[in-house]
């Protein structure tokens, strides 16, 4: 069963950056591309638990701030390394401009 969490106004997440949220007992990173699209992934890099919301975001490419590992923020797939892929979560914008994050209830 999935649960939808209202994370508040989308303007909380600056263009081209990420922000960490704690929802349902898990930590999730929400990203807003410079084009205004939102994506959500697990908050820590599977390599050495780097804080992904602090990483660099260029287009759909997220770069871990600790070791430069790259991920496709849309799919979570690792790019050019065997670190492992990221868990991704559906996130959408409500009619009122709020971020709605969907997670599977554990």
Automatic annotation (TrEMBL):
Gene3D superfamilies referenced in this protein's UniProt entry, alphabetically: Rieske [2Fe-2S] iron-sulphur domain
Keywords noted in UniProt: 2Fe-2S, Iron, Iron-sulfur, Metal-binding
Domain Rieske: residue ranges: 5-100
InterPro entries from the UniProt entry: Rieske_2Fe-2S, Rieske_2Fe-2S_sf
SUPFAM superfamilies per record: ISP domain (SSF50022)
Lineage: superkingdom: Bacteria
Name of the protein in its database record: Rieske (2Fe-2S) protein
Species: Archangium minus
